Amino acid sequence: MQTGSLSIRQLLKKAKAGQFKLPQFQRDFVWNEAQVALLIDSIARNYPIGSLLLLEPSPDIQLSTRSLQAAIADSEHADSINNQNFELDNKDAPSNKDVTPEAQEFLILDGQQRLTSIVRVLLNANPSKTYWFDLGEIYESFHEERSDWIKQTKGKSEDTTRNDGRWIRADLILEGEEQQYVIKYFLKHLLEQEERAMQAIQKVHRVFETIRNYQVPYILLEGQEGVEAICRIFETINSTGTRLTTFDLAVARYFPYPDLRDLFDKARQSHPVLSEFDVDGERLLQVIVLLEKGREPSRSEQLGLSKSDIIKHWEAAVNALVKAITWARRECGLEPQFYVGESQLVALASVLAGLSEKEQENFLIQKHDQLVQWFFANVMQSGFRATNYRIFVHYQSLNSLQKSGYLPEEDIPLVKLDLETLVRLAKSDNRYKAALALLRRHIKSDFYSGATITSENFEMHHFFPRSFGARKKYIDSIANLVPVTKETNRFLSNRNPSEYIKDLVEKGNFSVQNERFAGALLPIRIGPQGDIKPSILSDDHYEVFVQERGKLILQKIKEVTGNRFADHLGEPYEEI
Predict the structure, then answer these.
(1) Dihedral sign of CA atoms 458, 461, 467, 472 in order
(2) What is the pLDDT of residues 57-90, one digit of tens each?
(3) Other residues' Cβ atoms within 10 Å of the Cβ of residue 239
(4) Spatial separation of the C-alpha atoms in residues 446 and 487, rounded to whole Å
């Protein structure tokens, strides 16, 4: 890895030579004109604009690329530039004979929007616009930290100036060609104020010199760091906080055939569940690795797939992953809002993909209880994290279950969870999301209206409203959440349960209502005389309510995980 900097002049010479390329996973140029102007203004003031992250292709990392979205004119210097040594840091550059043509190309991992903006403005390379620098605005108001001295007009113009010489075309400043126009403009418009004219000329000259000599820092990855290191560095440095996924690299590696991005977009259109759960395309590559190689689906294994491997297994992988997610939604209560267990679902999809449709259905039906226990025992683990290794372990276990009917006990970990931990789980905790899935799985009807809860109409309702949260601990406790329909959630809104449960008492039919309470794991019942038992619905009884409901939820966790639930001593829980 190298670090250094390039002046704007050096940067644009390399852009003219076509030295900078975009990997196919990079998005298109999306910056608006205000962002472009702010960048150029920052450069003119010598403000930092962040580093470029560049990758030098290597035999281990071959990615399909495209050019910058800029209409760069052929340069008369291009031939001489192409014959120069293109190592970014010229101080320690090797001799020209050591530099191959491949080494002269650099892929932009981060900084595409900035580099394209600089090129479009300072090389007059916007396909549909021309940029100008307003000399009058620079002289009169540059000190006011405004960027309105940067102008743009529609269409490509070959004119050097506009507005009686006040605007000069932006690309003229690159080689100092603007000087004659700057002198001419100010001597003309400050005709009888020679000293002021010279001050204006010097001020504008300093701005343009700052742009020409501005140093853009870069980090160059030389390709030998390996895929894992490159992805880690990208995630650390990337200015948008975006991850560089294995699927991004695969898109660039295999383009144009197969066009993975296009295949994945079509899969998401055909199977909306993939979009709903925001499934990453990497999951499909992991399935294909397991199908084709039967090995841990690491990044290197995924990028080592042949094009024929992907084409052969793509449809089966898509259909199997859709079936796995749909099964988890139906049988385990999984929803996009609390999507957990990705490693298990990739493993399940990989096993399903190797079976016929009839075999898939038989497997999911006949092994239902074991699969549900296996799923919840894993997602109810503290610090749970999906890894390629875990996916492989799960895959081996499910293969064993499918072929021999045996699920290795080591892949059904003990669930160690007590009441106090449960009711205080943080929303960021994997177990919190798993518990939400369990509530969604168990609670089929709305406790208030009796309506059936579906994926399309459900929301999580705070039994004690969040508006009272300032006076309560753990207002987002799992024990204070209950699935209801959207209609009920909006109707109950911020009302306290001591009020809205009275509505249900007034409607009568206590036995039906008590069944709904029980179904929703609510620790209250309506007595024969219409009294609520126990009396725990007032605001000052919130913590008692949380404890009592937590016990009911914990019991359901015990039931679904069976003998893999451990008590506080770590011993397996024996079902009664």
Answers:
(1) negative
(2) 877 677 788 899 999 875 443 333 333 333 454 4
(3) 15
(4) 10
